[in-house]
Structures are given as structure tokens and as C-alpha cells.
């Protein structure tokens, strides 16, 4: 659909039609794949499988043989990483030799920033390069941590329920009722498959929504805090700064200047 260049990276937005199947193949360059919408499945040559949905972030090393199936349509941001870029990241290369998912709130925030820069007009190469290098470091930290797991349907439903109700108070007991599973089992399996606790996942969704409101509206910080499910502005500001490294006010100022 569109592509942009940053030093050592090529970023492209790609739409896959429903029913598309990509038979076993590999890429000459490592890839970072950020799912913008839709879902798809990936099966690797060693028998591993990953089910990817909206806001999933996947790392694939060069030469990793895999196949993809798109039951429905999907839109992805695909990043090709040049060989010289890999050498710039001072992380043990063994960590980047295996595929893996990045589930943490910091990686999700970086991916959101990357897409915002990608969509913007004008010269965004330097900003994209910085974000991509940070994502590459995150990939090195998290890729290859265990074989890809097939997420059970009940756990997908749990995640969708949290995503759909993230702006209000969502209890573990409520999620357990929705899934028909015990609260302890829900909590344990959510963290095992997605790499974050339900609380961390919920806070990340709220901060992501707050970022959108800060960048596109003139709502007060207090109103945004309450709209996004935070107890008050102080709590909102503390969580926002911890996850993004910036205060809401500074983030808004930067977003307005970038328009």
C-alpha cells in the first residue's frame, strides 16, 4: 500500500486479502511485522505455530522458513532490516537468530510510534530509525523465548474482552466468567501466552488510547484521565510517564508541533 525508507530499514504497509496462503518460504533479511488489523497464522518448518492478531509484533530472522495463512483480510506494517543494521545492535547475535513475539507494553508503544511516524508527511527517516533501533533491541531481548504457542480460543476471547472494555474497570472475576475458566488459570495463562499480566495489558491499552486523545483533541488532562479509566490525573500522569518516558503534557506538545 505504501513504503518508506529509514537508514538500514525499509518499512512497508501491506494488505493481505482473505484466503491468501503463502507457502513455505524465507526472507533474505530479518523482518519485524506489526499487525495493524485482522489476524493470520504462521507455521514454521520446525513445527512451531503462532497466531497473530491486531497489535501483535513478530520478529523473524533471515532464512527462517515459514508459511502464512490469512483466513480473513489483514493489514501489516512489515520492516525489512539490512545486514549492516543488525551489526549496529550490540546484543548477542544468538538471541536474534530465533523468531519470537514481542508482547510487552514498551514494544507496543514503540510500534505505535513507528506507525504514527510512518503515516506522517515529510521527512520522518531519522525518527523512524531511532524507533526501529529500539524495537530491534527489544527483539533481541525477547525473541526466541520458548517455542511459539497456539493461543486457545477461550484466551483469545479473554484478550478481546479486555480490549473491548479497557476504558472501564474490568475485574479478573469478570474475565473468568466470560471465559468459563478459573481466575487463577486465566491469570497464569494470559501472562504465559502474551508476556504481560492482565493489569499491565489493560494499562497499556489505556495509555495508547490516551496518546490518541492527547494528539488529536483539546480535552483537558483531567478529562482524558477519567475517559481512559484512570482514577485521577495524578495516577494517569504517573502511569503515562512510566510507560512512555514522557509526561502527558510534553507528549501533547510534541504531537502538536509535529503536525
Count of alpha/pi helices: 10
Overall tally of domains: 2
What Rg do the Cα atoms give? 19 Å
How much helix, percentage-wise, in residues? 40-55%
The description of the largest β-sheet is: 6 strands, antiparallel
The CATH top-level class label of the largest domain: Mainly Beta
CATH topology of the largest domain: Jelly Rolls
Shape: globular
What's the total number of strands?
Answer: 10
Average pLDDT, rounded to a whole number, is: 84
Order of helices and strands: EEEEEEEEEHEHHHHHHHHH
Biggest sheet, spatial arrangement of strands: 1-2-9-4-7-10
Give a structural overview.
By secondary structure, this protein is of the alpha+beta class. It has two domains: 2-142, Sandwich (Jelly Rolls), CATH 2.60.120.10; 153-258, Arc Repressor Mutant, subunit A, CATH 1.10.10.60. It has helices at residues 83-88, 105-119, 125-142, 153-164, 172-179, 183-194, 198-216, 221-227, 233-244, 248-258; strands spanning 2-6, 9-16, 21-25, 31-37, 40-44, 49-52, 57-60, 66-69, 74-81, 100-101. The chain has a six-stranded antiparallel sheet with strand order 1-2-9-4-7-10. A four-stranded antiparallel sheet has the order 3-8-5-6, with no helix packed on it.
